[in-house]
Amino acid sequence: MANTTWTRNHVLSLSDFTPDEYNTVLQTAASFSEVLSRRTKKVPTLQGQVVANLFFESSTRTRSSFELAAKRLSADTLNFAAATSSLTKGETILDTAKTYLAMGTDMMVIRHKESGVPSAIAQEMDRLGVKVGVLNAGDGQHEHPSQGLLDLFTICTLLNPQEPRLELLAGKKIAIVGDILHSRVARSNIWSLTASGAEVHLAAPPTLLPKLFADYGIGTGKLFLHWQIEPALQNADFVMTLRLQKERMTSHLLPSLREYHQLFGITRDRLQLCQPNVKVLHPGPVNRGVEISSDLMDDPDFSLISQQVTSGVAVRMALLYLMGSGKAGNSL
Amino acid sequence: MANTTWTRNHVLSLSDFTPDEYNTVLQTAASFSEVLSRRTKKVPTLQGQVVANLFFESSTRTRSSFELAAKRLSADTLNFAAATSSLTKGETILDTAKTYLAMGTDMMVIRHKESGVPSAIAQEMDRLGVKVGVLNAGDGQHEHPSQGLLDLFTICTLLNPQEPRLELLAGKKIAIVGDILHSRVARSNIWSLTASGAEVHLAAPPTLLPKLFADYGIGTGKLFLHWQIEPALQNADFVMTLRLQKERMTSHLLPSLREYHQLFGITRDRLQLCQPNVKVLHPGPVNRGVEISSDLMDDPDFSLISQQVTSGVAVRMALLYLMGSGKAGNSL
Amino acid sequence: MANTTWTRNHVLSLSDFTPDEYNTVLQTAASFSEVLSRRTKKVPTLQGQVVANLFFESSTRTRSSFELAAKRLSADTLNFAAATSSLTKGETILDTAKTYLAMGTDMMVIRHKESGVPSAIAQEMDRLGVKVGVLNAGDGQHEHPSQGLLDLFTICTLLNPQEPRLELLAGKKIAIVGDILHSRVARSNIWSLTASGAEVHLAAPPTLLPKLFADYGIGTGKLFLHWQIEPALQNADFVMTLRLQKERMTSHLLPSLREYHQLFGITRDRLQLCQPNVKVLHPGPVNRGVEISSDLMDDPDFSLISQQVTSGVAVRMALLYLMGSGKAGNSL
C-alpha cells in the first residue's frame, strides 16, 4: 500500500488537499474495501493504539462509522459524548482534549457544533509538540472532510472500481442541491469536486444559497450557482442532495417542507433532466419525501446512499491508517 | 458442537420454534457454559464480525448481556442508544438499520417499545437479499425470545446439568404469575413451555390476564388461566414471576403495589402450596417486596434469579453463534 | 513484577493502606509506565476477564481512564451509566451489582454520589463468597482512592523516576488548598500523605474546612489546618488544589468565584512563598482562573496536571492487575 506522499498529521479541511493526497486516500480506501470483503474484516495495523471519539455534538452514524473503522484496524477506542462530560463542569474544550492526550490517545476524532474547534485542538497539539492526529468529524458549518472524501470515493469507485482516482471526475457535471448555506458537507464537497476538474452546480432557494458561495470557485471557473433546480440538474452525471434541518423553517428560511420538496426535492421526474445513468447521493440521515422522494431513495439504479455508508468505513480506515502510520511506521 | 438442524437466520419469536431448535439452543448454550467456567472465558468464533446492539428502548441489563456474549465470541460490538440517535433527526427505523447494514454489520440485536419492529427489520434484510441475522431483544408486548430461551435453559440445566433438553419439562407444572397482559417475557415463555409438554398455569388479576390468553394454549390442552394465585401454585414445580411496571397503577389497572403483593406476591408462605423443591424465577429487574418477598429473592434454595442472568450470557452466545455460523461456516 | 505483599480483594479507601501496599502499587505502576512507553501499549494480562464500570454518577474522565487501563490489560469492559439504567426501574444498587456479578464480571469499578456504596457492594460480594474485586472510583464525600494513589505516584515518580517509594515524601511539606469539606480527593490524599511522613497543610475558608479535619492527623503530628492560604504555602514542596464545585456558592458557602480566587487561588505570586521548585497538582476538571490561574496551569515548570492524568492510567492498570492477579494467578 503506497503512501509515500502522505505527510499530513491532521485532517481538518479539504480546502488545501492536493491531488496527490486525494489519490492516496482513494487508493488506500480501495485497499481497505478489499479487506472488508474478506471473511475476517480486521487487520492488526493499529493494535495498541487508542482512537478517542470526542463528539461534543451527538451523532450515532458518524461516530459508529469511525468506531468501526478504528476497531477494524485493531485500535482501542474511547467514546466521549458531550452530554455526560466534564464540559458541564466548566472545563474548556482544549483542556478536555489535553486530558485525552495525557491518557495516551494517539488520534482524536472530533465533532463540535462550533466551526474551528478541531483546528484549535490540532494547533494546540502541534504547539505542545506531540504527534497526535486530529480528524475533523464535522465542525459547525465549516467542513466535514471525511464525508467529502467518502462521497468522492463512492463516485470514483463507481467510475473505476479497481483504480479510483480524482481525475476520473474531470469534465463531469455534479449538482449539489439543498441547504448549502448551513452545510459543512457541501463545503467539503465543493473543495474536492472543484479540485477534480468537475463542473459543480449549486442549487437552492436564495435564503439557503448566498452569492458569496461563488467565491469558493474563484480561479477554477467550474462553480455555478442556481436559485432554481432545473439548470443544475440539466445533463448532470451526479446529484448530491443535502439534509434539510427542520429547524430552518422555524427560523423562517423556508415556508414548509412540502413546498421545499415541490421546488427542490429530487424525484424521478426531475432526474429526466440529467444524464440517463445519473446517480443520487445523500449524506444521511434522510428525511424521506423531503430532500428526495422515498421510492427513488430505495432504487439501486439511482441511489448511492448505501454505498456512501459502506465507503465511509473504508475511507475512515484509510485516514486513520495514513495518520497513524506516519507516526509509527506501521505497514498494512 | 452439533448444530446440524439450525437453518434460522433470525430469532424474532418462539411461536414457531421446533423441538429440534429448542434442543440445539440448549445444547449449544451448555457448551458455552463450559467455556464460561474456564479461566479465559473467550473463544475466537466471531472474530472480525460485527454485532450491532440497536436499542431503541433503553435497557442496561439486556444490552450488557448481549454485549458480553458478543465480546466473548470475539466479535466487535457497536452500541446504538435511541436517545443520541438520528431518530431524533427524522430518520426512519428501517433506514437506521440499513445504515448499520451498509457499515458492515453481521448481526443486529434489536429492542423497541413497539411490537413488530425487529420483524420488520428482518423482513427488510431478507428483501434486500443480505445475510444479516436479526435478534429480537424485546419488542413492545410481543416477545422477548432470548429471555424465554434463557428461562428454559435455566430450568432444564437444573433438571439435567449435562444434557439440558426440552423433554425434561414434560409433565412439570409451571406457574407464571403477574402482569401477563403487558409481558413480552410471558408470551415467549408460554410458547416454549407449552412446546415442552409442561402444564402452564397463568395467574393474575383479571385486569392483567384477559381470557384471550387461553388461545395461546389451543390444541395443547396444557394452558390454564387463573384469577387467583392459589390454584396456579398448587403442586407447581416452578414459579415464574413477572416484573410489575409501576405505571400500571396510574392507569388504574391495579389499586396499589401493596395490595398486589398481598394478592399475588410470591412469599415463603405461598410456596408451601408448591412442590417441596419448587424454584422461583424472575426476569429482573425486581421490585423487592412487590412481585416477590425480599428474603425469598435472596434465598438460594428457592431463587434461580442469579442463574437466569448467568444463563443469559450462555444462551445469547449460543444464539449469536448459531446465527453467525450458519452464514460463515464458523466452528467453535 | 513483585507483588508478594498484595492480599487485598477490594480498594475502597486509603485509610487502612499499609506502607507495603502503597509501595507495591507504586512499583507496579512504574512497570506499567514502561509498558505505556512502548509502541504497542498493551499486555495480555487480563485477557478473557471482564471489568464493569458501574458509574452511578457520571464522569467522563475517570471512566475513560479506567476503561483504557482495562483495555490495555486486554480485559473486556462493560460500561454502565446510571441515566439509562434499571435504577430508574426501581432495582436496588446491590441487585444491579449482583446482576453484573451473575453475568460473569471479574472486577467492578464503582462511582456513586452517596458515600459507602462501593463498600456496601464489596461487603455483599464477600458475603456471597465470590472473588470479585470492587474498586471505589469515588463515593460521595468519602474517598477516591485511585486519585490519591495517582497523585502519590505522580509526586514520587518526580522524586525518583526509577524507584518511586512512599518514603521519598518523608519530611516534605505538602499543601492541600480548596474545598476540603466536600472533597473525597482530599480525604484520600490526607491518608496517603500522612502515611508517607510528609507534613500536610490544609488551607480553606472556614466554611470549607471544619475543625474536625484535625482528627485525620491524630497520632501523626503531621496534619495542620489553616484558614488562610499563606502559612500552608510557606516553603511547601507541593501544592494540591481541589476542584471548586460552583454549586457551593448557591448554598452560600462562598461569596463568589472571584473572591475565592483572590483569597485561595494559586497564582505565580503566591508560589513565591513556596520552595523554588514547587509543583502544583489538580485532580481536574479545572475551573481556569478560579482554583489556579490559567497561565500557571499551562506552565510545565510548575504544573503536574498532565502527568497526573498519565499517571492515572498506569496506577489504574496496577490496581486492576493486583486485584485480578490475586484471583487468577496471572503474571505480567
Structure commentary:
The structure is a homotrimer of 332-residue chains. With 332 residues, chain A is of the alpha/beta class. Chain A is 39% helix and 14% strand. In chain A, strands 7-6-5-8-9 form a five-stranded parallel β-sheet. The first copy, chain A, has a four-stranded parallel β-sheet with strand order 2-1-3-4, sandwiched between helices. The first copy, chain A, starts with 18 loop residues before the first helix and ends with a helix. Chains in contact: A-B, A-C, B-C. Chains A, B, C: One of its GO terms (biological process) is 'de novo' pyrimidine nucleobase biosynthetic process. Chains A, B, C: L-aspartate binds at residues 89, 184, 243. Chains A, B, C: Residues 10-155 form the Aspartate/ornithine carbamoyltransferase carbamoyl-P binding domain.
